[in-house]
Design brief:
50% helix, three-stranded parallel sheet, mainly alpha, 125 residues
């Protein structure tokens, strides 16, 4: 990411005086390659795309209709438009995050939360 967005730590928490030049720069190609290699070594498929718009489109392609989807808190997913897509209801996926956090009974929510780590797809960027 070349520029800070409204969701970047430099803007969300200005009192922390986050070094925007350091944390908003694109990593070196060698760092990207070694990260991809390490992630793939753990049996996780990696898809590298050109930009955030392509990332969202890739997510739409690789998650099949009807899949159970869970996501963690992610500034990157927000910036890419993923959370807007999930909240719109225009995707054809079962949103486990919404199901878990819509439960008002704390005991039931905790039981539901224990199952949230077994979705078909977990989005993380």
């Amino acid at each position: 990411m070349a520029k800070a967005t409204s969701y970047s730590a430099v803007n969300l928490l200005p009192e922390l005086k986050v070094d925007g030049a350091k944390w908003n720069r694109k990593p070196a190609e060698q760092d990207i390659a070694s990260t991809i290699k390490a992630v793939e070594a753990r049996g996780i498929n990696v898809s590298r795309v050109r930009d955030g718009l392509q990332a969202l489109e890739k997510i739409k392609v690789i998650i099949p209709p009807g899949a159970e989807v869970m996501n963690g808190s992610s500034t990157t997913l927000i910036e890419r438009g993923y959370m807007e897509l999930m909240n719109s209801g225009l995707q054809n996926w079962s949103d486990l995050h919404k199901i878990v956090f819509s439960e008002e009974d704390a005991r039931k929510r905790n039981e539901c939360g224990e199952c949230q780590w077994q979705p078909n797809t977990f989005c993380l960027e």
